[in-house]
Give the backbone structure.
Amino acid sequence: MSDLRAIYNYIRRYLFFLLALYVLAWGFTDHRQIFGGLILGTALSMFNLWLMVRKTYQLGDAAVKGRKVYSLGTFSRMAAAVLAVIIAMEYPNHFHFISVILGLMTSYIVIMIYFFKQLLLPK
């Protein structure tokens, strides 16, 4: 499971880097709605990633101890995505809807980039 922790830390580091870029762009450009949506979506995407890693560890621990796990937190991750969409729809002056959706997909895009990097550039 230490490999999962290393992958999680790598992805989290790049998501924080992207968030920092989004915050700088939000502060220094006139596209506040777009970058506000990206910030909201990416922040909830990071939460979903953390939740998925936590549930994966719980699943591994339960498998070692012979217990059952009933959920991997799919409902919680979907609820967080719905929350982001509701916030974007409630405050359209602050958050661009499509940017929120793209932000929610950011962690998955970073995971795919990490996968292709490992596939093409093995250690």
Remarks:
- The mean pLDDT is 92.
- The first helix runs from residue 2 to 28.
